[in-house]
Amino acid sequence: MKNIQEKIIAAADLISNSNYLVAFTGAGISVESGIPSFRGTEGLWSKYNPEVLDLNFFNKNPKESWVVIKEIFYDFFGKANPNPGHFGLSRLEELGILKCVITQNIDNLHQVAGSKVVHEFHGNSQVLVCTDCGKRYTIPEVDLEQQPPECMECSGLLKPDFIFFGESIPMDAYQASLAAAEKADVFIIIGSTGEVMPANQIPEIAKQNGAKIIEINPSPSNYTHHLTDIFLDGKAGDVMALLMEKIEK
Ligand code: APR
């Protein structure tokens, strides 16, 4: 099975005949929505120092961290829209084929595209939490021009409700993702390098439990050569559109 057409047909068959399809997404699925990925030549970590998302650094240097966090995640995020990659997954859920999306992304685009069951392994950027009293704010409630943003109740430092390096994964998302990976008979990996623990264990668990792995990525990842059964080398939006054409025919 060499060319992309044959592989699309094979992948579409696997998806249509699956009993428990699960999708696992990374930053790559949002690149066609205008949100840069983290790694790679144009990646965010080639422009910014990842330590701004290190919990200890953030607590010691809140203003320095927040200036970069605002630029990366808030100046643009609110204006990004889902692309055919996100819409394809929400359609597969609507058709009763896709059981859930496990995402490493914090951009909320799966939900905006209509996906209902989304396990956010790294949390979500739409909420800020007070590091002192725990009060939660949606983004429109906070003036992000005031840096670093403070709690209106106790003046404590506000932190985005997504996971920083050094922070533990939300237990409910972790357990739900593990359970889904164990049940999956077909598992689609879209747009992830597979660099970050423990998220990168989820596809491994699916494979260990017998799932067939489909991967969509324009370039090989840490999964491609040892985990992936069908590698669809292309952009998420383009490939998902081709898959949906076959599946909905
Ligand atoms: N369609 C699909 N995949 C794409 C596209 C595209 N249009 N463009 C790029 N990619 C792929 C890249 O080839 C790469 O494999 O998306 C992947 C992006 O990799 P990363 O930037 O490492 O993103 P991800 O794997 O999600 O990172 C995991 O790292 O910094 C942390 O918390 C952050 O959730 C993130 C985690």
Descriptive report:
Helix content is 32%, strand content 17%. The protein contains 8 helices and 9 strands. The chain has helices spanning 4-16, 55-60, 62-74, 84-94, 109-112, 171-183, 201-208, 236-247; strands at 21-25, 98-103, 118-120, 123-130, 136-138, 158-162, 186-190, 212-216, 230-232. It has 2 domains: 1-35 and 82-122 and 170-249, Rossmann fold, CATH 3.40.50.1220; 39-79 and 125-162, SIR2/SIRT2 'Small Domain' (2-Layer Sandwich), CATH 3.30.1600.10. Strand 4 (123-130) and strand 5 form a beta hairpin. Residues 26-29, 31-32, 37-40, 43, 104, 122, 191-193, 195-196, 216-219, 221, 235-236 line the site of adenosine-5-diphosphoribose. Residues 26-29, 31-32, 37-40, 43, 104, 122, 191-193, 195-196, 216-219, 221, 235-236 line the site of adenosine-5-diphosphoribose (APR).
Specify Rg, calculated over alpha carbons. Answer: 19 Å
Element pattern in H and E: HEHHHEHEEEEHEHEEH
Task: Please bin the fraction of helical residues.
Answer: 25-40%
Q: Name the shape in a single word.
A: elongated
Poorly predicted segments? none
Query: How many domains comprise the coordinates?
Result: 2
Quick rundown:
This protein is of the alpha/beta class. Helices cover 32% and strands 17% of the residues. It has two domains: 1-35 and 82-122 and 170-249, Rossmann fold (3-Layer(aba) Sandwich); 39-79 and 125-162, SIR2/SIRT2 'Small Domain' (2-Layer Sandwich), CATH 3.30.1600.10.
